[in-house]
Specification:
With 100 residues, the protein is mainly α. The protein has a single domain, classed as Arc Repressor Mutant, subunit A, CATH 1.10.10. It is built from 6 helices and 2 strands. Strands 1-2 form a two-stranded antiparallel ribbon. The model has no long low-confidence stretch (mean pLDDT 91).
Length: 100
């Protein structure tokens, strides 16, 4: 995994808040996981979303996820909490207009 991490996955505090990401990109492992595990896209389909990365990058991100599931799932929870907080603080003006 160490060699895989160096080649495809990196973490640095000054980029993306230190979250694991595709090396040389601002695409988080979390983003790949959402497309694959939560939205059901295949690795090839994920390349359509992120054409600047390689198939090896996608597979490395998924391997990182399976090796660090608690870390990534924790990031998913934190992100969902952040979104919920923002929605509570700043309600949708469109939703207000639609009466929903």
């Amino acid at each position: 995994m160490d060699n895989l991490m160096v080649q495809h996955i990196e973490k640095s505090a000054e980029v993306m808040g230190g979250k694991a990401r595709i090396a040389g990109h601002r695409i988080r492992v979390l983003d790949i996981v959402v497309w694959h595990e939560k939205r059901g896209l295949s690795p090839d389909e994920i390349l359509g979303v992120y054409p600047s990365i390689t198939l090896a990058d996608v597979h490395a991100a998924l391997a990182y996820y399976f090796d660090h599931r608690d870390e990534i799932e924790g990031d998913l929870v934190k992100e969902a909490e952040l979104v919920a907080g923002m929605k509570a603080r700043f309600p949708s003006k469109l939703q207000e207009r639609l009466g929903a």
